[in-house]
Design brief:
Elements (H helix, E strand, L loop, with lengths): L1 H15 L12 H5 L2 E4 L5 E4 L6 E3 L2 H11 L4 E5 L12 H7 L2 E2 L3 H5 L5 E5 L4 H9 L4 E4 L5 H14 L3 H22 L9 E5 L4 E2 L5 H8 L3 E2 L15 H7 L3 E4 L10 H9 L8 H4 L3 E3 L2 H4 L6 H12 L10
Parallel strand pairs: 3-4, 3-6, 4-5, 6-7, 8-10, 8-11, 11-12
Antiparallel strand pairs: 1-2, 8-9
Helix pairs in contact: 7-8, 8-14
């Protein structure tokens, strides 16, 4: 009797510690299906069982990065600006191949049946939540304010679409081009750096810490607006502040984004504004244009932007080069 009780007790203990033959095996099927996970730039985790094949992009910066990461075949929709040469590096031919430009609304995105939607942390939260509530996977890229943050944007988006190596290669090319440009611009003595003020159609722009401020600094250009003390900085830069800066060069806007901006008319107003008559940029006829696609760059083309700012301000350092 004691022997029987001992055998039963041993069997019970074996089952209790996981050795019972009737125990069901652990189901690892869900774990096995997970190909990779990423954290987007809003800090949210996304899980992918395979590389996305139908990607909808809602911003021109992500349009550009995605095109160089995955080509046009895996993109089912670009942002509404795709093909506009004044704000995006996406060509009209690339826009034609993708075939759809998406307004930032739920119906437009759903119509292309994406398996990944790429937006940014500045995108409309209601639309993002609506898309996710409908079961769509949404990746939020960042809004870089400097070169290092742009590198991160490219690298992380490369991971999100399952093209980590391509993202790393894209960043490597950026770094190599910037290093080559710096080897040229570092020859400019500090006391020979020129000061510029960039304008949009409302006032001067480029406060300290903004992306355009970072790009001008990388181009060895003094950003006049960044010289305004914080206590005097408002949303609108006054003419009096511009006069006090007394820049060497004015950079004027080029993008007629709503078909109501008069670029030539704006140039005439600036040239003939009596408030600016003694400013060096006006006295020396140093008013220049750099396309707004460089001013508002949101992708790896930041290198092109820095280079074009430098070429506009220091053309003598680029003589003999092909444009």
């Amino acid at each position: 009797m004691k022997r029987l009780l001992l055998i039963c007790l041993m069997r019970f203990l074996v089952c209790l510690t996981g050795g019972c033959g009737t125990q069901e095996p652990v189901n690892n099927s869900v774990q096995e299906k997970v190909a990779y996970e990423v954290i987007d730039e809003a800090g949210r985790k996304l899980t992918f069982t395979e590389k996305p094949q139908r990607i909808a992009s809602l911003t021109y910066g992500t349009d550009e990065i995605l095109t160089d990461l995955v080509g046009t075949k895996r993109i089912v929709g670009y942002s509404r600006w795709a093909g506009d040469p004044e704000i995006t590096f996406i060509t009209k031919e690339q826009a034609r191949k993708v075939g759809r430009k998406l307004e930032e609304n739920t119906e437009a995105v759903l119509s292309v049946k994406p398996d990944l939607v790429v937006a940014t942390t500045a995108s409309n939260n209601e639309i993002i939540h609506s898309l996710e509530a409908l079961g769509l996977k949404v990746y939020l890229a960042g809004r870089p304010k400097n070169y290092e943050q742009m590198r991160v944007k490219v690298l992380k988006l490369g991971e999100a679409v399952g093209e980590k190596a391509k993202g790393e290669e894209l960043v490597k090319q950026m770094d190599e081009r910037i290093a080559k440009l710096e080897s040229k611009l570092c020859k400019i003595p500090d006391d020979k750096r020129k000061t510029v003020v960039a304008f949009n159609f409302i006032s001067a722009m480029g406060r300290k810490g903004d992306l355009i401020d970072n790009m001008l600094n990388m181009a060895h250009i003094n950003n006049g607006v960044a010289q305004i003390p914080n206590e005097f900085m408002t949303s609108y830069v006054s003419k009096e502040q511009v006069v006090r800066i007394n820049p060497d060069i004015f950079l004027l806007p080029t993008w007629n984004y709503d078909n109501r901006q008069d670029i030539e008319g704006y140039l005439n107003r600036v040239q003939n504004d009596p408030a600016y008559k003694d400013v060096k940029a006006i006295k020396n006829n140093q008013i220049k244009f750099v396309s707004d696609k460089y001013r508002y760059v949101a992708s790896h083309h930041i290198v092109d932007a820095v280079e074009n700012f430098a070429k506009a301000v220091y053309p003598e350092y680029f003589r003999g080069e092909k444009s």
